[in-house]
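Q: I have two molecules that I believe assemble together. Could you output structure tokens for the complex as a whole instead of separate predictions?
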Amino acid sequence: MARTATAPGAPTSRLGKTAHEIDDRLIVAGPLRRTLNKVFPDHWSFLLGEIALYSFIVLLLSGTYLTFFFDPSMREVTYEGAYAPLRGVEMSAAYDSALDLSFDVRGGLFMRQVHHWAALLFMASIIVHLLRIFFTGAFRRPRETNWLIGVGLLVLAMLEGATGYTLPDDLLSGTGLRIISAIILAIPVIGTWAHWAVFGGDFPGELIIGRFYIVHVLLIPAILLALIAVHMLLLVKQKHTQFPGPGRTEHNVVGNRLFPTFAGKAGGLFFIVFGVIAALGGLVQINPIWLWGPYNPAQVSAASQPDWYVMFLDGSTRLFPAWDINLPGNYQIPALFWPTLVLPGILFTLLALYPMIERKLTGDTAAHHLLQRPRDVPVRTSLGTMSVAFYFWLIMSGGNDVIADKFDVSLNAMTWVGRLGLIVVPPLVYVFTYRICLGLQKHDREVLEHGIETGVIRRLPHGEFIEVHQPLGPVDEHGHGQLAYGGASVPKKMNQIGGARRAIRGFFRPIESPAAVELEQRQEEHGLASAESRELTSSGRPSEGGRPSEGGKPQEPRD
Amino acid sequence: MTTHDTRPGSAGGADTAGPLHGGPDDDYTPEQLAAMPREELDRLGASYDGVQILHVDPGPEPGSALERRSVRQVGTVFALAGLAAFGFVVIYIGSGWFLPEWEWTIDSGTWSSWFTPMLGVLMGLALILVGLGLVLYTRKLLPHETAVQDKHDGSHFDRVTTGATLVGGLHNSGLARRKLITRSLAFMGGGLGLMLLMPLGGLIKNPNTGNPLGTTSWAPGVRLVRNDGTPIRPGDAVPGSLETVFPEVPGGNREADAATMLIRLRPEQVAVEEPREGQDGFGYGDYVAFSKICTHAGCPVSLYEQETSRILCPCHQSQFLVTQGAKPVFGPATRALPQLPLDVDEDGYFVARSDYLEAVGPTYWNRERI
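A: Yes, here they are, computed for all two components at once.
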């Protein structure tokens, strides 16, 4: 309206004028300020999802580069490239171009390995992120939708990985494709029709690489991108969860603003993730396709294994007994159907529905923005570790031939260990986790009631020895702490409550004087209570019955 | 302002913007804002975003030893990152120009075998150092502030007013009353949905025409040849050996379901051999031939242990007993490997007596019926 160039506060610098011009047209100042001011809670475990996001960006960049050279065709060609051992060998154009990418494109091998490593890191960070969300209860209302989207992302990322694994058309990926073909055939009733629809005919046909290619580079990435966008929009909309702590409530977020602190840290993490992937891509060889050779249905190499994130299905397939179901009319449901389609179907359905299941079982339908410590929800935590044990047991069984070979164990024994362990180990893990959770809970209460063990032993006048305990807050007439457990981490070492001054800074030699640090800390007062109440008043043991203090202030730390 | 001004050529009244309602521009005049220092403006804006700055630890004092030291650190890290990045450029461009050739050679320990690792190290180092520099910068040189932002639940006002707008629109459409329209809409929606799905029908093919799953290229009189196309005589292999053979048809050695194992049993194996029911005499002398395609998931079963007469599939460890018609004895496979009936033609070479009697490869729904 009345804002003209002469109005007070009008920009005078060139940069300010440019910003003004831009905002005149795009009206971004408001939304931009809201974004810059957005508060992010600070906890290392909140970075796991970011790692997944950053590896996805690396995947998009490196994958796009690879498409410039890759030819997704099953046309037969003769290899004439730089890699001498395969020269003159008949192979598909896909494998041929993947070899060219590795040997005739400058830095192509590096990019291929970067892409593969980024994919592995992407999957790993998704799963670790999922575990974080699960164990801290971050999926509870109102975040069930984002949990569902997350599970969708996990499944799509797995499919994306599996299709990408198939593309080079080497012996290993061809073997994987053959198993995929068998799995599709194993679907009851429509198996053969589904196979013909996917492969365009009998295995392998001439279409499958091209089809998987477009699924891998367009279809799934587009869906992934859209889902990630929604995932993050919801995150911004619903704001972050946070662990309970001083000043943190269900109605606020305590942390750093996006700009500049969080942006600096997140940007740093992006470069570190990218850098680690690049280093892995250059240093650690992965999937050396030239060693496997072109796909040939009559050949296979020992220890043919999928990438680690599909390995649990390989394990379940190895362990599942030979149980074909014969139906009247000479129809059959192959044994392969159960461990490869039904099992993941059940697993992912349970995973997706878990927030609803927990809501039903606990009757807790309230909205939660404060996270829970895993120990405080022993049933969920135990269910989680049980599932993790189940999953890792299957992964382990996916490599049971390698274990049998390396440790000189009978392969059949490994299979039986896998079968029995799959039934026995997860319940045991459940029980152990449950007990550990209860033990940790008890210890938290113990410390709140009786104080921190100081390690200071004192001899009483009548000869009894006691360990001096440091109460964390006000105590009642019996010397018992009155602080209630608030779901936050309870300090258990004197140093955590300022029992000793912090370490002097400086890596090779100190860069600050101990006296200055001491002074600074006295001013800051790190303890939870005022200086007077820090005085040790009793051992904290119930038997003491609130014996009045007989001196024994904590010793001033000495250098 | 009105949109009902009917005067000819009227633009609907004076061209002025409407008043802003409740925006911060009403609360603060430009003069007031101009009088505020930057920190205060920052906090004022934050407060409009529900953010309160609780506590600020200032960064190191300008000019202090701590600051100089931190600046040196961060600067060094960024400089090293640049150095590594330029190193990458030099290696990438220079290899094959002023540096040795990067292309693959058979020898190890050459520049070519170090090319990819060097790229990885330099790019990794450059990027990790950039990240490290950013983190150091944030931790050591920026003030540390603790901010708290309010979290708002949904607004009741928004819900009610939005609901009114939606329901109002729906009410005005009269869809609840105009049943003919809702029904035709449902019919149209169904039709359109199906229509758009139809092209996917192009993917559907009948898997039963010509029985491709139940047949292979093996046929009466088709010779068994090795991968290089040479035929095999009964005297060629030693007892206890296994050879992968293919039908002598064009491209036979690339077919997905024709690969066959020709096994010559040892005398002690012949002594205990029990062919499957109805497959007596499928072998030829001490030779037997089984499909190489695993009946579990279709991998080639490859590992033959003649001591135990077992064939192991490396994919899922199904084991088949050669002396008992290759029936599965361990692992997830449920069916025996199909046996190829053998014969010898007039030139003394192995031929098939017929195709496999059953489908080779993995089990599927109607396998028994084909």
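A: One point stands out. The longest strand of chain A covers residues 452-459.
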